[in-house]
C-alpha cells in the first residue's frame, strides 16, 4: 500500500483524495477514524492523524464532534479543480512549449489528441 516515494501521511491524504475524486467516497460520507485507519494499515495512529489533519486544513474533510470525520460537501469539485489546474500546469503547458520548440503546430497537436480520443 505505502511506498518510499513520500511520507506516509501524504500518501494517506492522497489516497483519500483519490477516493473522493473517483467517487469511491461521496460527499458527507463518513471516513474511517484515524485509529481504524491505523489499525487496518498497521501504521502509527499519529501518522494517520497527520494525514487526516491535512485534509481538514485543505477543506476536504470535516469533523463532527464525537462522531468522526466526513467528506466535505464541496470536496470532489475542490479536488477536481485543483487537479485540472495541475494537469494544465504540469502536462499541457510543457507539451505546448515542447511542440513550439520543435516546430509542431498547435493544430497538429490538437488533431493528434482528437485522433487518440477516437481510438478509445
Automatic annotation (TrEMBL):
Keywords: DNA-binding, Transcription, Transcription regulation. The keyword DNA-binding applies. CDD domains: WHTH_GntR (cd07377). Pfam families: GntR. It comes from the Bacteria. Gene3D superfamilies: Winged helix-like DNA-binding domain superfamily/Winged helix DNA-binding domain. InterPro entries: Tscrpt_reg_HTH_GntR (IPR000524), WH-like_DNA-bd_sf (IPR036388), WH_DNA-bd_sf (IPR036390). Residues 6-74 form the HTH gntR-type domain. This is GntR family transcriptional regulator. It comes from Kribbella sancticallisti.
Amino acid at each position: 500500500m505505502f511506498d518510499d516515494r513520500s511520507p506516509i501521511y501524504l500518501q494517506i491524504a492522497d489516497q483519500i483524495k483519490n477516493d473522493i475524486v473517483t467517487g469511491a467516497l461521496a460527499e458527507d460520507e463518513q471516513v474511517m477514524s484515524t485509529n481504524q485507519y491505523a489499525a487496518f494499515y498497521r501504521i502509527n495512529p499519529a501518522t494517520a492523524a497527520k494525514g487526516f489533519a491535512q485534509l481538514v486544513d485543505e477543506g476536504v474533510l470535516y469533523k463532527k464532534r464525537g462522531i468522526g470525520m466526513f467528506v466535505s460537501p464541496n470536496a470532489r469539485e475542490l479536488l477536481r479543480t485543483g487537479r485540472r489546474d495541475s494537469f494544465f500546469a504540469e502536462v499541457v503547458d510543457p507539451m505546448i512549449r515542447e511542440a513550439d520548440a520543435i516546430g509542431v503546430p498547435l493544430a497538429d497537436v490538437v488533431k493528434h489528441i482528437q485522433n487518440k480520443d477516437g481510438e478509445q
